[in-house]
Amino acid sequence: MDYDLGLYQWLGWTVQFALAATAIFFLLRALSARSPRFRISRRLMRNRQPPRWWLRSMGADRDSPALRERASLLAGCGIRLAPEVYLAARRSLQLLLPAIAVAAYGLERAGALASLDFGYTAAVMAAGLLLLFWERMFLEAYRRFRADRIRKELVIVSSQLLYYSGSRLHLHGKLTRCLPFTKLMRSDLQLLLNEWYHRPDSALARFRERLGTTDAYGFVETIRTLRLGESEEVYDMMREMAKEYKAKIELAKAGRKETVSYVLFVLAGIPILYTFQIFLYPWVQQSQRLFDLLNS
């Protein structure tokens, strides 16, 4: 009964922590920008700056290596959030979570909070701090995963464009034919096609920024060259680019296989250690006792 009650309390604290984090996120979002009245005013909302006092208090109002690193990570992960807001929110949580833990400890010492509840609160706060401590590692891992997925889709799109190289279709029509073959970058490619006839160069630049990978830069420059004039030299350059992307895909696949092989090698050694501990170690102990008796 006590175990079930403790489990329910732990789940309750976890849900409350998730709801509190969500509420803090939307509160910071509401403070940084107003809700647009019309759909067309979303760009103005994204350009609206967060409160300067908050950024200044968190040290995110000026250029720094941490800010540049977060900007690169957010762009590579496809997260359309201002790096200043992200860095300030991260540092705010680093200050808020220990403060909540200290407040819970004070309530527990005063008798207003049960010891079990304080333990759950401290565990949730510690888990939140660990997530904040490892968030850069998680972002880097997701950026590598997203870059690999985008690279594969760029190879597919490049192959389709090479297939339509002899067609009289407009470049917009060729890219439209490539849309069903994409998955991760489908929304970004669809937005590029929607903005194509307004300002193609600006649309390509925004498409490159939304993807946020180094491979997307070369692809966008090739598309820009094709828009100015299609020629066999440009398609040859696209073939070379597709071959380079395929080589990177194979290299990344080989690296993942090597990592998995190392992990499997370590896991295979665990049963061997248990075998030694269960079957061989008692015989070693008996032999040691026998030698001790003979020496005595």
Brief sketch in words of this structure:
The chain crosses the membrane at residues 12-32, 95-112, 118-139, 262-284. With 296 residues, the chain is mainly alpha-helical.
Note down, in words, how this protein is organized:
The protein is flat. The protein has eleven helices and no strands. By secondary structure, it is mainly α. It has a domain at 149-251. Residues 1-5 and 34-45 have low confidence and may be disordered. The longest helix is centred in the last third of the chain and has 64 residues, at 232-295.
Low-pLDDT windows of residues: 1-5, 34-45
- Global Rg: 28 Å
For the biggest sheet, the summary is: none
Mean pLDDT: 78
Q: What is the β-strand count?
A: 0
Output the helix-strand order: HHHHHHHHHHH
Query: Into which percentage range does the β-strand content fall?
Result: under 5%
* Count of helix runs: 11
Structural class computed from helices and strand pairing: mainly alpha
Helix content: over 70%
Shape: flat
Distance between the termini: 56 Å
Transmembrane segments: 12-32, 95-112, 118-139, 262-284
Keywords: Membrane, Transmembrane, Transmembrane helix
Organism: Cohnella zeiphila
Protein name: Type II secretion system protein GspF domain-containing protein
